[in-house]
Amino acid sequence: MKSVTTSAPGKFVILGEHAVVYGKPAIALAMNMRFTMRAHRSNEFKINGAPANPHNMSPHMRYLSELHGNMPMSIFIDGRVPSGSGLGSSAALSAAYAAAVRALKQLPTDKESIARDSFEAEYAAQGRGSPMDTSASAQGGGIALNVPYKEEDFLWHIEKNGRAWDISKIDVPEMTFVIGNTEIRAPTGPLVEKVRKYKESNSFARSIVDEIGEVTLDGLEAIKKNDKVKLGSLMTYDHKLLSILGVSCPQLNKLVEASLPYSYGAKLTGSGGGGCMVALTDQPEKVAEAIRLHGGTPYIVSTGVPGVQVKS
Length: 312
Ligand code: PMV
What we know:
The structure is a single chain. The chain has 9 helices and 13 strands. Strands 1, 2, 3, 4, 5, 6, 7, 8 and 13 form a 9-stranded mixed beta sheet that branches. A 4-stranded antiparallel beta sheet has the order 10-11-9-12. Helix 1 runs parallel beside helix 2 (89-104), helix 2 crosses helix 4 (132-139) and helix 3 packs antiparallel against helix 4. The protein is an alpha+beta fold. The chain is globular and about 55 Å long. The model has no long low-confidence stretch (mean pLDDT 96). The chain has 2 domains: 3-171, Ribosomal Protein S5, domain 2, CATH 3.30.230; 176-302, Alpha-Beta Plaits (2-Layer Sandwich). 39% of the residues lie in helices and 27% in strands. It binds (3R)-3-hydroxy-3-methyl-5-(phosphonooxy)pentanoic acid (PMV). Residues 17-18, 20-21, 86-88, 129-130, 132-133, 188, 192, 270-271 line the site of (3R)-3-hydroxy-3-methyl-5-(phosphonooxy)pentanoic acid.
């Protein structure tokens, strides 16, 4: 194959971030912000026309290049998933890039292989983490990790350093979510490390991580019953638990508070420390306005989007 076009979506987390790193349940939805990548074999590495090499690429792309033999290629990246914002930007970039490298090397480009490659890239770059973002981006739609599932919904099982995750697809009924971006960029690695340190030194922090897992399982039941009131209140409660873990920030709290009068519930999404929050609502315009008035950037997102796509 000479050239290929791939794409992969970002995601947001309904419930379970951070705790999922320790094998607890989580639920994530792919959404309509995605990266598209056009790639072809070349004599030298180029990104958007500019010379590149594995050392000045993002750590995720460098890892994936090395994983597949450092084949020089020229890539053009389009589209946008805001980075450092809890929307799975690096996972989406990794999935699109893994798909491009695999396609050009005539390797399988099934979703599972791409999810596995991009998880390894994310883990290497973050130093720790779960396969939530990378699986959501590869699969699309809605996924859950470490929840009870029907056999036909099972996707794949991933293990790393003594942790294990069963990933399954979930059907999420029609629901409207609004994302609010604080525009404060906060890379994932240091936040995951902060929670690790807190959890290792403090049994209260460990109990909060366990509780996030339980809240997520309750949330899954609420999703199955299409109970937005219950799901929203669990999301707001989860935000409080994440705040206790130290991964919220004043601007995230402000956007969550501002959204609540028009929402079933709201919480930070992703690693926190800045980045985005998400609200579940039937009044998206009002939530968007409240977010704007409080200094955030709103996106009314749609879900049910495809995962990684490969076109030659
Ligand atoms: O902030 P993001 O989009 O990288 O999401 C991170 C999610 C965490 O649960 C905090 C980490 C992980 O690897 O699952």
